[in-house]
Structures are given as C-alpha cells and as structure tokens.
Amino acid sequence: MRKLRADYAFVPDLKKGVFSPMANPCITVDESGKIIAIQEYSSPDSNSGKEDGIEYYNGVFVPGFINAHCHIELSHLFGAFEQASGMSGFINQINALRESVDERGRFEAMKQQFNLLSTQGVVAVSDISNCSESFALKRQFLNLVHSDSEELFPVYYRTFVELFGTEESDAEQILKRGEKIAEQAVQMGLKASVTPHSPYTMSPKLLKITTLRGLKSGEISYHSQESQEEEDMIMYGTGALAENYRGRGLSMPEPANTTALEYFLNTVTATSTDGLAKIEGRVNLVHNVVLSQRSIDAAKRVITEPFFTVCPLSNIFIHRALPPLDLMRENNLAICVGTDSLSSNTILSMVEEMRCIEQNFPHIPLGEILQWACRNGAKALGIEERCGSLQVGKTPGIVLIQNLRDFHLTPQSRSVRIV
After folding, report:
1. 323-368 pLDDT, tens per residue?
2. Rounded Cα gap, residues 198 and 376, in angstroms
3. Residues 6+ positions from 27 with CB-CB distance below 8 Å
4. Is residue 220 domain-resident?
5. Any idea what the CATH number is for the domain that residue 30 is in?
6. Are residues 57 and 90 in the same domain?
7. Does a structural domain hold residue 376?
8. Domain total of the chain
9. What is the pTM of this model?
10. Spatial contact of 407 and 366, defined as CB atoms under 8 Å apart
C-alpha cells in the first residue's frame, strides 16, 4: 500500500460533468496501482518528506493521460519537415522522407519516445501503424512491471493498422495485407485491427470495406476534416490537394457536394448487402480542423459512439489552424486529445497539447481539458472501467503536474508519472 498526497487532485465533479480540484488530497493505492481510497488530508504536519508513511508531492495529481492519436513509428522524422506546408506539401514530405532513416535509427527514435510517454504520464495510446516496427516495443511496455528501481511505467498501446490506396482494383489486396500486419500484433499479445486513413487517400471501396472490417473490433480511428484542402477536394474536386493528386496520376473520388465527413458516412452506409443504417461502434474522428455544424449533425445522426480528437500542435504545424473547439463544446461532443507524430509536431507531450488549448481558448477551464485528455480518451478506447479518472476501484495511473499557476498550465509546467 502507498499513501500519496499533493496540494490538489483533479477528480470527477458529477454536478459539473468535468474534473474539479480537490484540496489536500490523500490517495491510497494498492500494489497494483488500484485506488483504494481518496480522502482529504487534514494533518497539521509539515510538507517535508514522508509523514506517517505518506508521500507528499508539491503539485497537482491528475489521472494518467490517454493519447488519443499518435503515429509513434514516425518518431525518426523529428525536425525533418517544413512547417505550414498545408496537406499537399505535408504529403510530399512524407513520401520523400519516410524512409530517410535506417531501421536501427528508426527503432532508437521510437524507443526514446516510448520512454518519454511512459515517464510523462501517458497510460494508453491510440497509435497508428503502417508496419510492424513498433510492435516489439509495444509488447515490452504492455508487459512492463514497474519497480522502485525502474523509472518506466507500463503503457497500453491500441494499434490501428492504417490503410490507404486510391485505386478501386487494389482494395481487396490492400485489406488483406493490412489484416496480416494486424494479426502479427495480435499474435504478440497486442490489441490491433485495421482502420481507414482518410477520404482522400482511399478509393470508396477500400474506405468502406476497411471501415466495416475495423468496426468488428469495436472501434476505428479516422483522419477527418483535417484541412480545407481535404474539404475542397471532396466537395468540389478542387484545391491544392486535388491538384497534387492529378499531378501524380492518382484517382480521386467524384466531387460529392457534401462535407468530407458526410462523404465518409455516406460511403460506409451506402446500400449494399453489408451496408449499415447506422455506424455501430466507437469512431474516433481525428483532427476536425474544418468541422462544421453540418458535419456534426450528420455524425450524431449516423454514428452511435462518435469521438472527436484534436491534435492542436500538429494542426498549427501543418496548417496554422485549430479546430473549432467552441462549436464542439456547444454541441457537447466527446472531445479527446492526441499528439500526432514528430513529422508534424516538435514534441509528443500531452501537457503541451493542453497548454496550447489553454493559450488559444483561455475561457476553457483546465478541468474540462483534463477530462478530454483522460476520461474521454479512455471511453474512446473502451477502457474507461479502469482508466481515465481518479476514482476508487480504478487503476488509472497517477500523474503529478508541477508549476501550475492558478490552475493554468505555464511554460514551466511538467508532468511525471507517480503510480
């Protein structure tokens, strides 16, 4: 048993529906990290060292973070990409630079980020894979047993094998290749399944069959409305992204005269022997930079469990734009937070993502942002029964955030996992 105390802890506020700070918390956990009790500490003793077997930490306790969107296998691309290139320019850079580092270098870059995510308090990751290079490290962290002499903590990685291909005739073969990769992960004890990439990188057939196959696992992850270039290409067949595809001789969907998200929903639910009136399961719609009310209404109507993940630092890196968080809040959407990859970010840090949100939307309280970064992400991955909030009976991980000012993150704020 361990007893831990801090200045505050963010715990669920059932009346407000967000996390609220509790003063002078004392949290008791067992050897597995399960929370046994949360109560107010009222001793007048000093704040130095351990008192009566209680560990004191200067800062604020929060649950372990859920990184709701990451491409950890792209970690070797740190510092290699030009910023503000737009989606067309970003795709060109991916095509040119993805294999620019050898296998050993790619592994070492991944390993460094695996370690950082673990020590900084991430307990689960919704991770996108295009190959099997990250699987050995994922298995290592899944089975990691923490000890006092070991700084690293276990992390659950939910692997989504991302598929893309613009030619209709290739769809079945692409799906088979993707399923083989996912099966490799499953055989290593990881949870993995195929998932669609985006509306503009997939033929309608591949988009549909991949989505339906992925949903059999209970959840998919899907890049949605990441840029105006994507929206223009899908709606009208125009813009920089459409011209990029034409220049490379790639097939594109016919102009849909609908938003890109509506196009996805219509494609998946189109009448056929395996068509669906609704999309059943957890659908993590990632980025949402040009999300509109029209798209929100369509998603609510068709998807039984929609989640809307934002990766603000990545969106600024590529597009110099941010998602419409106020519109999303007005619609009571289940918002999650991710870091994306080091090809489109300079750091994989949940604290920095939250600080970016605070800087650009200062009216959104930290307790609400923490709910997005913890509980909503756990819901999106179907692991809320054990993660996502500081509650008795859960094993959410306990993370210390230091250097807050009036419950706002500062440039000096740092997170470290305690349990």
Report:
1. 999 999 999 999 999 999 999 999 999 999 999 999 999 999 999 9
2. 22
3. 3, 4, 5, 9, 35, 37, 38, 61, 390, 398
4. yes
5. 2.30.40.10
6. no
7. no
8. 2
9. 0.95
10. yes
Q: How far apart are CA 40 and CA 5, in angstroms?
A: 9
Containing domain of residue 54, as a range?
A: 1-63+387-419
Please say whether the beta carbons of 351 and 122 come within 8 A.
no
Residues 6+ apart with CB under 8 A from 261: 224, 225, 285, 291, 295, 298, 299
Which amino acid makes up residue 346?
T
d(CA 125, CA 116): 13
Token couple for 175: 């799906």
Exposed / middle / buried, residue 246 (Cβ in 10 Å: 0-12, 13-18, 19+)? exposed
Please tell me whether residues 146 and 3 are part of one structural domain.
no
Strands across the sheet with 156-163, in order?
A: 65-70, 122-129, 156-163, 191-196
Which tens digits make up the pLDDT trace of 374-410?
999 999 999 999 999 999 999 999 999 999 999 999 9
Phi/psi-derived region of residue 84, left when phi > 0, alpha when psi is between -120 and 50, beta in every other case: left
* Assigned domain for 365 exists: no
Residue finishing a domain among 348, 376, 409: 348
